[in-house]
Amino acid sequence: xxxxxxxxxxxxxxxxxxxxxxxxxxxxxxxxxxxxxxxxxxxxxxxxxxxxxxxxxxxxxxxxxxxxxxxxxxxxxxxxxxxxxxxxxxxxxxxxxxxxxxxxxxxxxxxxxxxxxxxxxxxxxxxxxxxxxxxxxxxxxxxxxxxxxxxxxxxxxxxxxxxxxxxxxxxxxxxxxxxxxxxxxxxxxxxxxxxxxxxxxxxxxxxxxxxxxxxxxxxxxxxxxxxxxxxxxxxxxxxxxxxxxxxxxxxxxxxxxxxxxxxxxxxxxxxxxxxxxxxxxxxxxxxxxxxxxxxxxxxxxxxxxxxxxxxxxxxxxxxxxxxxxxxxxxxxxxxxxxxxxxxxxxxxxxxxxxxxxxxxxxxxxxxxxxxxxxxxxxxxxxxxxxxxxxxxxxxxxxxxxxxxxxxxxxxxxxxxxxxxxxxxxxxxxxxxxxxxxxxxxxxxxxxxxxxx
Length: 452
Ligand SMILES: Nc1ncnc2c1ncn2[C@@H]1O[C@H](COP(=O)(O)OP(=O)(O)OP(=O)(O)O)[C@@H](O)[C@H]1O
Ligand SMILES: [Mg+2]
What we know:
Heat Shock Protein 90
């Protein structure tokens, strides 16, 4: 049951008990009052008869006199006079009927037995009969009952009004609790935007302020959790992308070269050039060993091996030598300074050059591949270019591989950009990458892992 109704019901019960007690008290007082009134009325009646019979010495018609006395009681509200004549006939005075008679059961409860008195008549009147007075509480009780009814009615009105006012006041006083309950339910459902107004009573003001503070904290925590979750997802996503890129850049070229070597061995077998076959098989074993190292490095989230130890220019030289032995028909030209731009940029340039060479050999049947790296101090960029004179790039025939995506991502991660397009001067493709020149600090920074 709601607290409001519970309180109103308790107070209503108290009112009812008070009303019942008041009624009992009123009944008791009425009972006493009726008894007192009747005693007093009987005494007054007796006094009136005594007065009327005082000068009865010269009475010639005693019967008439007594009838006259009885007639005087007509209209008396509480006492009835009865004349019992010698011939057993009776003359009775008449009581006025009460305007609002009490119910018979109440009359029985409150009136009690009537009080009677036989008047001691003087000798001159005795011969005419006996005179008896008897109380009748009907009129007295009707008056008292009216008063009691009014009192009880007023009490009931007062109690009802009080309960009504109380009901509305409690409604107002308990509204903050209702709002708090509603707000708690929202919090329970995970809606941390729930807030309540600061209520006026001091205790409730503290409660509502405490609630709002709790909701703010919860919503901040939820926001933080959400952000952490997002960050975690982003980090995981970046790690996956990085892993895919490394796998592609470090393993795919070697697989490709193994494929090329295997095809060469088939040709060499036809020409029975066994020493060259042995040489190719050594190359395959070398590539496999390199792949093993790379896979190990990827698994351990290591940088591409060898680059830092050799330096970028030597690492690119090695790459070119590698392809020269496999594609002797292709001419390679390199133009780059023998310097380092720091591990991040060197690593990115190396990977981009390696994938571009790989793509040129794989897709374009070139006769010449040129690799150049220049520093443009005025614009603050390093510009690398890998160009071949092969069949050219057709975006519609793109294979859906990952090499280009990886190169572009590497450039973007360092704040640069990479483009691949067909050359204007002649046939073939040119890959151009622009990376911002690093600060001195970045160039000198040597990660621990690379130093091992
Ligand atoms: N030098 C190039 N000459 C001609 N076409 C090229 C050249 N470089 C790239 N392409 C074209 O761009 C496409 C995408 O290259 P990308 O490196 O992304 O994929 P891939 O080399 O086919 O596969 P992956 O690198 O994943 O092994 C290639 O399929 C090819 O059609
Ligand atoms: Mg590729």
